[in-house]
Amino acid sequence: MSVTPIRENQPPSLQPMMALVAEDMNAVNAVILDRMQSKVALIPELAGHLIAGGGKRMRPMLTLASARLLDYPGTRHHKLAAAVEFIHTATLLHDDVVDGSAMRRGKKAANLIWGNPATVLVGDFLFSRAFELMVEDGSLKVLKILSHASAVIAEGEVDQLTAQRRIETSEEEYLGIIGAKTAALFAAACRVAPVVAEASEEQENALEAYGRNLGIAFQLVDDAIDYTSDEETMGKGLGDDFRDGKMTLPVILAHARGSDEDKAFWKAAMQGDRSSDEDLAHAVSLMRQTGALSDTAEAARSYARRAIDALSIFPDTSARKAMAEAAQFAVARAY
Description:
Oligomer: single chain
C-alpha cells in the first residue's frame, strides 16, 4: 500500500503542520522555557541541553494541530502541549541512561556530560513539571489521559528491556512494546485537544486513532533507519539498536526468514557476541536479502494510511491536509 504525497511533485514535509501551528508553538516554547527553570542551576542547564537540541517537537505539534483541526479558540492546549514535551524529554533522558547512548539529537548525550544520577533526576523534575501543568489545566479527564500515557510509556520501556537480547521475541510482542513506549504519547497528545475543545466522542476517538497509528509508523521507520541511515542524519549512532541487542521488526523478520546459519548469526549478534562494524554490515545485508527492511517500511506505510483514514470524519481543511502530510512525512523521512 503506497502513500501518495498530497502536494504534487514534492516529497511530503512537516512544513505545512509547522506553519499551521507556528504561532501556538511560540506560546508553547515560552511555557517550556519558563517551566524548565529552577533555582538549582544544573536543572535548566541539563534540561536545556536536550530541549534546545533541535528536536522536531512532533508530539506537542500534534496537540496544537489537533486543536486547530477542531477550531478550538482557547489557549489551554498550550500548557498541555508543553506537558507532552516535558514527558517526552523526561523519557529521552531516562532512555539515554538505560541504553548508555553516546548521542542524542546530534549532540553528546546528557548523561555523558553530567552523569547518570543528575540525568535521571532532571528527568524526574521534568515529569513533575508536566504533572503540575496538567493539574493547572483543571480537567480530570486530561490528567487521566496524560498520566495513564506516562504509566504505559514506562511499561513499554520495561517491556523492551526484558525483550532485549531475547531472539525469540515475536512480532506481536514488538508491536505491543512500540505501541506503549512510542504510540501511547502520540495518541495522548492528539486526544487532549478534543477534550479541551469539548468535541464529540467520535472526534476524540478519531484523533486518538490518528495519533496511535502515526506513533507506530514513526517508530517502525526509526527502527528501520537505525540500519540504513547515518549518524549525522539520525542524530544518534548508526547501529545503536544492533549493538544494544534490541529486538526490532527488521531483526525479527530477518531472523524468522533466515537460514539456520543466519539464525545462528542473529542469536549471537543479539546476545552481543557479533557487534563489529563488519557484523553490522552483514546484518544489513541479511535484512535486505530477506526483505526485512522493505517490509518494515511497508508496515510503516500501512499504519500511516490508517492514521490518515482516521481523519476522514473531519472537514477537508488545511489543518487536516497538514496532519495527513505529517503522517506521510513520518514514513518518507530520512531522519
